[in-house]
Amino acid sequence: MIESAETESETPQASVFRTGHECIHSYLKGLDGSPGVYRMLDERGEVLYVGKARNLRKRVSSYAKPSGHSARIERMIASTTSMMFLTTSTETEALLLEQNLIKQLKPRFNVLLRDDKSFPNILVSHEHAFPQIRKHRGSSKEKGSYFGPFASVNAVNRTLNQLQKVFLLRNCSDSIFESRTRPCLLYQIKRCCAPCVGRVSKDDYDDLVKEAEKFLSGKSTGVQEQLADEMHKASANLEFERAAAIRDRIQALTAVQSVQGINPRTVNEADLFALYSGGGQACVQVFFFRAGQNWGNHAYFPNTGSGADDDEVLEAFVAQFYARRPVPESIILSCRPSNLDLIQEALAKKAGRNVKIKVPMRGEKALLVQNALRNSRESLAMRISESAAQAKLIDDLAKILDLEGPINRIEVYDNSHMQGSSAVGAMIVANREGFLKSSYRKFNFKNREIRPGDDLSMMKEVFERRFARLLKDDKDRLADAWPDLLLIDGGRNQVAIASEVLALLGLSDMPILGISKGPERDAGREELHLPNRRPFALAKNDPVLYFLQRLRDEAHRFAVGAHRSKRKKAVGANLLDEIPGIGAARKKALLARFGSAKAVGGAGLEDLKMVDGISNSLAETIFFHFRDRG
Q: What is the pTM of this model?
């Protein structure tokens, strides 16, 4: 917990009329040598930059000097019209507070980690007598052993697929496990040992769990040696079928190790960060090493704060990367940040143990860094090439639509439902660099009067909620969140509804484009719709048409995914979850007594009172809850 005292320095009245060095200098009298965080604001009150300092007065005085600054810092100083300050007890606390404010405020001149998603893990759940092995993303609240992070869902799925062949652990849900009366297909194809129907003893299954956890912890050699001994013993005892099954497990185990890529001998647990910059952009490749194995890599393209140096970019990136992620025992960097000791101290405080940060110059770790840097360079080159192509397509689209200004942000809208059920509205965002997935949004419809399958009413609600919220947050339309073009998966009617909503909100100047399939609904014969204009089409091989198709397909993919997720939750929902006072234990007792939620709904009041843990008042609540539903 950071204990800080906030001092909003509005000190000199004249600072309102001053800008740049003169404005910053006016704050020096009110500052001392305390550590803390400072914010620079422009004339509209927007935060330009958030910084930390061991000595606030000393740091701010450096900005007050009229010379000796880089072009980036000079532009920032020139735009500054006011400042705010937060003092802290230590510089480490200032670093942690700085990163929190950067993530919250997203200042233009700060380095920003734009893709902050969590990474998947493998979970061996211990909530059940026969543990389940499965993919997991999010907080580690469930009882069990967690192994990760993996760089992608594909890496997890690939590893799980092989682990099932090796250790034969179940991946079915507890409810399916309890309802099985005979082995499922996974048992037939030798991916599960069928503990659900007693084809393996509890002790033998526990041994398989221990072997799996041992392997995922990096002790794969011991597991292989143990399996090899078992295979030889089975062969010596003429148990050839069992020996062949163990042989298949050993082969699968070898396959798991091979797909992990380069497995370093000298790195057990570490995250490796390699930064390559060029053309005003940067790529950071993050490699995950766990249990002596390479569990994949992920490329990030942080906002460089209008041209920050490499050491500043990497320092800010690492600090933000671990804001909501567990810290490994070791971190390997491609270059040395200026505040390496401070970052190490802050991460150690977060982890509650020592954290080693290294910048290797020789040996195996240096070779790993070189490999990662090569990946960063290639990823950035591809990104710049794709960005240039995307920017040209967007400019060509603006010419086709005869727009006055440039297009920097496109919002694409679509709905998804199944015969009106589990309906979801979706919005995806693209800019001149590609898809901006952190800005994607889904809308669960609140208007109960919308008829199932009424796409136009759904679209109307989405636009009302989206743009009413934007106006509330930024009525002057100054923020970057405002789109320059709205693309709708639909035709004339959808465009008309969107135009009507925007006109009522005073936003009739916002360009709207609808894209619909042609008369025979063939891809390549799409029709484009603009308000108050006849539909028109682009040539079948026009690159702009391909670009619009890609935008529409991405919106459709996101909408369908959100719909399926909602439908899956609805299918798995239990009527008992709606009743206040019914937790996991009471729900289990009710289901054990009556067999299903439907049977609980039909039970008599006296029968409900006889269930363990159900009081007379709660029994009445349950009884009348189902009666009120009709």
A: 0.64
